[in-house]
Amino acid sequence: MRFLAEQHRYLSIRRRLGADLSTDERILRRFTAFADKDGAEYVDTRLIMRWLESLPAASAGTRGARFRVARQFALWLHGMDPRHEVPPQGLVPAHVQRVHPHIYSDAEILAIVEQARTLPSVYGMRGLTCSTLFGLIAVTGLRINEALRLDQSDLDIETGVLRVRFGKLGKERMLPLDLTVVQQLERYGRERDRLLGRRSEAMFITCRGHRLGDCGARYNFALVCQQIGLRPRQDYQRHGRGPRIHDLRHSFAVRTMLNWYRSGQDVGREMIKLTTWLGHESPANTYWYLEAVPELLELASTRITSAAEGSNEGD
Question: Which UniProt keywords apply (predicted)?
Fold first, then answer.
């Protein structure tokens, strides 16, 4: 279990430096488990490539991310012992292409939340937590890890403001919630603490009282989608392919923009609000939805054409 111990040390150091390791940790756990099972004494290029080949087929972006995580770990190990080998950078190219989002209909979102309530567990905590989590992401557009890292104290019930402390790149933001959302979170909190038998600091928890993790949230979401027909059913607890939990965030952004276009609002002026709400670095990241969703692109094109025609008439 040599590499497992080194993994814990490596991740601990990076956490203290403020890194967000939610994805990297999941990838690195798989690599160190493979290395220990393989009986390897040192990390080298051949070990990393054998590990990559042992994994299920994935996109170039995913393969590139796996390679990057393993290479960074090898680089750290090499700094302590030069017998570890660092693979050449770019050995596994990562042609990252943004996944075309699935935009959920209102009926699909309702079905996801309702089905999540039926997830079995001893005290009913699993269904309670997952249905509330999926519903919150759908109505706020939070990233999954932003939602999972929420504490009860991040919700100000009096003002209806949710504090997102762990946004991308460490940025914090405040989200004013609709009263119905606040009331739902308040009810969830009371029932969660009643089932747990004590007050929990974390907002979203498991039946054992631990903070719900990224893997657990994604697995339960995939299972719910399989049960309602949005993903094909799988054996051996596999997730399968299909709409993702992150697509709830995409759906929130797209519905917001569609409502602006349909109601005749100035989308350019409103866009900065959505950029801030979503925690994007710049409006360019938010405008990507115009290209990703045909209806939005058509509405934007129509708006631009109408504005141009109006300008020509004025000339």
Answer: Chromosome partition, DNA integration, DNA recombination
